Amino acid sequence: MPKNKRERIIALLVAGGKSERMQADLPKPYIKIGAHSMLRQTVKNFMLHPDIDGVRVVIRREHHMLYKQSVDGLMIFPCVIGGESRQDSVRRGLESIEHREPELVLVHDAARPNTSHALISRVVETLKTAKAVIPAMKVTDTLKRGAGGFIEGTVDREQLYTVQTPQGFHYATLLEAHHTLQGQSLTDDAALMEKMGEKVAMVDGEASNIKITTAGDLKTMQTMLNMDLETRVAMGYDVHQLVEHEMDTPPQKQTIKLCGVRVPHTHKLLGHSDADVGLHALVDAILGTISSGDIGQHFPPSDPRWKGADSDKFLLHAYQLLMARGGELVHLDVTLVCEAPKVSPYRQQMIEHIAQMLKLAPNRISVKATTSEKLGFTGRGEGIAAQAVVTVRLPRE
């Protein structure tokens, strides 16, 4: 499905409910499942899908600070405030993206944080031939009617389905339905389309795409995510030569860059980029966790684009590759090996720099320094070496 410059497919995530059935201290979208909030996980599922051009979240006004904390660092559209009902919230969300002229829109419950890319793709693909698409699962359990504590009969389940989100629509058609049927209480957006006389196509839903409504659902989801994740550890190593500064380099500029921080030193590190040996080792370690080669493959020294480049770009690139795989950084450990300069006065700055770049708590980052007891090239002051060890959690393949 070729894209043009406008946002052709936008995902609208509805997080405006009151979460009354959860009986939790936090509103449902902001409860953590694993390391992140339910909302952040849901946003990432859509943000990282190659067909989705933009994500907007509809929230309750009083949850705005929780929302900001939850999506910090994610590249999505600003949120919009919802209405009293889900239907009002979706309508407001649709109206808020009208100026972006989307062709298609996916409406999704923020409380479904385990939606697969395969399911999103099925919905998008079916919108080529249908104006409305919903994921559905055939009912397999026997259904009974009951009243007063007694069974009154058995329901024929042959044509019954449970429905999920994301529900996909041609944007203009859904917006028209919301305006036409405003004020009517309907259970989902597909019901509006049915009321308008539009046919709604079905694609296969997924048992793992559960909606978290109760504390029991939350426990089930946490168990599922833990079962589907694996821990990986990888190491990175780098070394750069120390050489004398140019004769005309003023004393205040006689520095080297270590883990993103400028450190005064009598010599400079030689390299095609900024020669940040600490970040280079960290990049290789992150790439190692996803079996994605090494820094030289992604940023060849022969490429003039990377001459003098800031190594922050390399680190962000590796981090984004990890995020695209659904990965999560757990811990980073960097060891710098040199006789000089003295690293300890700058250690906390280095930790804070990496933490800010990778949106990671500083207590999950370790920067250490050691000497080689005057042995080898580091002992002779000919260069600086760095070793990094990274731990991540990834969806099991």
Provide structural commentary.
The protein has helices at residues 38-47, 64-70, 86-96, 117-126, 171-180, 189-195, 215-228, 277-289, 295-298, 311-324, 347-358, 376-379, and strands at 9-15, 32-33, 36-37, 54-59, 80-81, 104-109, 132-138, 143-147, 150-155, 161-163, 167-170, 201-204, 229-244, 255-258, 261-264, 267-270, 328-337, 365-370, 383-395. Strands 1, 4, 5, 6, 7, 10, 11 and 12 form an eight-stranded mixed β-sheet that branches. It has a five-stranded mixed β-sheet with strand order 16-13-19-17-18. A two-stranded antiparallel sheet has the order 2-3. The model is unreliable at 1-5 (pLDDT under 50). By secondary structure, the protein is an alpha/beta fold. It has two domains: 9-213, Spore Coat Polysaccharide Biosynthesis Protein SpsA, Chain A (Alpha-Beta Complex), CATH 3.90.550.10; 229-395, 2-C-methyl-D-erythritol 2,4-cyclodiphosphate synthase (60s Ribosomal Protein L30, Chain: A, 2-Layer Sandwich), CATH 3.30.1330. It is built from twelve helices and 19 strands. The longest helix is centred in the middle third of the chain and has 14 residues, at 215-228.
